[in-house]
Amino acid sequence: MSILTKTFTRKRSTHVTTTPSDDPVVEFLDAFGRRDVDTAVARVADDVRVTAHGLGLRGQGVAAIREILEDIARAFPDLRVTTKRILRTGDVLTAELKVEGTQAAPYAGAINQEKHLDLDEAWRFEVRDGRIVAIDAYWCQQQLYRRLGVKRFDQIAIV
Q1: Are 46 and 58 in contact (CB under 8 A)?
Q2: Residues with Cβ < 8 Å from 123, sequence gap 6 or more?
Q3: Cα–Cα distance between 46 and 133 in angstroms, integer?
Q4: pLDDT for the residue numbered 1
Q5: How many Å apart are CA 107 and CA 118, to the nearest integer?
Q6: CA quadruple 53, 87, 148, 114: dihedral positive or negative?
Q7: Under 8 Å between Cβ of 93 and 122
Q8: Residue 32 contacts by C-beta under 8 Å, 6 or more apart in sequence?
Q9: Residue 142: is it exposed, middle or buried by C-beta count within 10 angstroms (0-12/13-18/19+)?
C-alpha cells in the first residue's frame, strides 16, 4: 500500500507510526529526526531549492539544506523531531512537525543559554522523480527567539 492511501495514527507516543517507506519525504524526516544529516540530504535533488522563511534563508543545492540541518543538529544535540501529520497533494507534501531540544551552541543569532526549545513547524516539500526538489520551512521566528531567551528582536540580547 502506498503512502498516498495510508492514514497516520498515534499510539500512546508522540511519534507517528508508519511502515517502512521508499517515500523520500518520509525518509528525509526520519533521518532528520535521528540527526542523520547525510541520509536526509541523500533524498534531495542536487539542485534542490531551499527556503527557511523564519531565518530569511534562501538557497539552492544540497549544500543549502545541509547547512540548515547541520546548524540545527549542532545547536540542539538532543534534537527530537516528531512528525505529527503529512498531507499530500500530488507532488507536494506538507509535514506538520514538532521540533524539540535543549540549546547547546549559538543558533540563529541567539547565544547558548541551554534553553529548551519546543516549536511547531510546517515544512513543504515538492517531489519529482523520487527526489525532493524544493523545501520550504515555516515556523514562528518570534516564538523561537522567546524560547531561546532573546528579549529584543531589533538587536539580539538575552533575558
Answers
A1: no
A2: 29, 94, 95, 97, 135, 136, 137, 138
A3: 8
A4: 40
A5: 14
A6: negative
A7: no
A8: 40, 69, 81
A9: exposed
Specify the CATH number of the domain 3-7+20-147: 3.10.450.50
Give CA separation, 114 vs 32, 43, 127, in Å. Answer: 21, 31, 36
DSSP 92-133: EEEEEEEEEEE--S-BTTBPP---EEEEEEEEEEEEETTEEE
Domain segments of the chain as ranges: 3-7+20-147
Say if residue 80 is exposed, middle or buried (CB neighbours under 10 Å; 0-12, 13-18, 19+). middle
- Please write the tens of the pLDDT for every residue from 79-120: 999 999 999 999 999 999 999 999 999 988 888 889 999 999
- pTM score: 0.80
The alpha-carbon radius of gyration of the chain (Å, integer) is 16
pLDDT for residue 92:
96
Distance from C-alpha of 52 to C-alpha of 56, rounded to nearest angstrom: 6
Determine how many CB atoms are found less than 10 A away from the CB of residue 9. 8
On the question of pLDDT at 8 being above 50, the answer is no
